[in-house]
Amino acid sequence: DAGITQSPRHKVTETGTPVTLRCHQTENHRYMYWYRQDPGHGLRLIHYSYGVKDTDKGEVSDGYSVSRSKTEDFLLTLESATSSQTSVYFCAIRHLGGPYNEQFFGPGTRLTVL
Amino acid sequence: GDSVTQMEGPVTLSEEAFLTINCTYTATGYPSLFWYVQYPGEGLQLLLKATKADDKGSNKGFEATYRKETTSFHLEKGSVQVSDSAVYFCALAIVDRGSTLGRLYFGRGTQLTVWP
């Protein structure tokens, strides 16, 4: 258990509304990631963070923004949700100290955009 | 670019059968390789890993060997159980100490169902 929680765990919203998902970690990890999981695509990286206020885009970042104002929280915002953003969203952290780049995942948030 | 190609499922087996899920990769550097497992309704859990050629990762009866010559990391288990029913993801990460990203590249996942 890497001490990662995500909230909410489930959300249903309507097209055009803003949505914010929260990832919270308790172990002071520097690197945090947001992925989305869709059938037939595996997991795809949306955004990542390498420190407080240090973030960058992943491969599917359009329509998403992130913020990290403190080490323990990494927020993912959909400014105006669309049906194509219906997905399961996973947050992950990366341990430092080894060469493996292995990541540990939160339980996920299932988002439905109607 | 870096990528992972994973055997498509679903895979359906009887309990105690032998399991193989194929995974091949393309990488420009020297990747670390992983298998993750996702049980229904849960997040991904790291199942096993290997960091260099000929390494064998193992956990819970599952094994995978890092084969550089065939760029493969196939997952195997000699005798599956009903409790192994899950989605399995192969993934790679490029070991680049100068990079801040450390991203993982995932395969599409393979659904395994084991019947009693």
What does this protein structure show overall?
- The complex is a heterodimer of chains A (114) and B (116).
- With 114 residues, chain A is mostly beta strands.
- Helix content of chain A is 0%, strand content 58%.
- In chain A, the strands form two sheets. In chain A, strands 2, 4, 5, 6, 9, 10 and 11 form a seven-stranded mixed β-sheet that branches.
- By secondary structure, chain B is an all-beta fold.
- Helices cover 0% and strands 51% of the residues of chain B.
- Chain B has strands at residues 3-6, 11-14, 19-21, 23-26, 31-38, 44-50, 56-59, 62-65, 75-77, 86-94, 104-106, 110-115.
- In chain B, the strands form three sheets. In chain B, strands 2, 5, 6, 10, 11 and 12 form a six-stranded mixed β-sheet that branches.
- In chain B, 38% of the residues are buried.
- The interface between A and B is medium-sized, with 24 and 26 residues.
Draw up the topology in text.
The complex is a heterodimer of chains A (114) and B (116).
Chain A: E1 4-7, E2 10-13, E3 19-25, E4 31-38, E5 42-51, E6 54-57, E7 64-70, E8 73-78, E9 87-94, E10 103-105, E11 109-113
Chain B: E1 3-6, E2 11-14, E3 19-21, E4 23-26, E5 31-38, E6 44-50, E7 56-59, E8 62-65, E9 75-77, E10 86-94, E11 104-106, E12 110-115
Parallel strand pairs in B: 2-12
Antiparallel strand pairs in B: 1-4, 3-9, 5-6, 5-10, 7-8, 8-9, 10-11, 10-12
Could you write a compact summary of the structure shown?
In chain A, 0% of the residues lie in helices and 58% in strands. Chain A has 114 residues and is mainly beta.
| Structural shape of chain B | globular
Catalogue the unreliable spans of chain B: none
Structural class by sheet pairing and helices of chain B: mainly beta
Total helices of chain B: the number is 0
- Mean pLDDT over the full residue set of chain A: 91
Mean pLDDT score of chain B:
91
H/E series of chain B:
EEEEEEEEEEEE
Order of helices and strands of chain A: EEEEEEEEEEE
Give the termini separation of chain B: 41 Å
| Helical segment count of chain A | 0
Q: What radius of gyration of chain B results from the CA coordinates?
A: 14 Å
The protein's oligomeric status is: heterodimer
Strand content of chain B: over 45%
State the largest interface.
A-B, 24 and 26 residues
Shape of chain A: globular
Let me know the number of strands of chain B: 12
The largest sheet of chain A, given as strand count, sense and whether it forms a barrel, is: 7 strands, mixed
Helical coverage of chain A, percent range: under 10%
Structural class of chain A: mainly beta
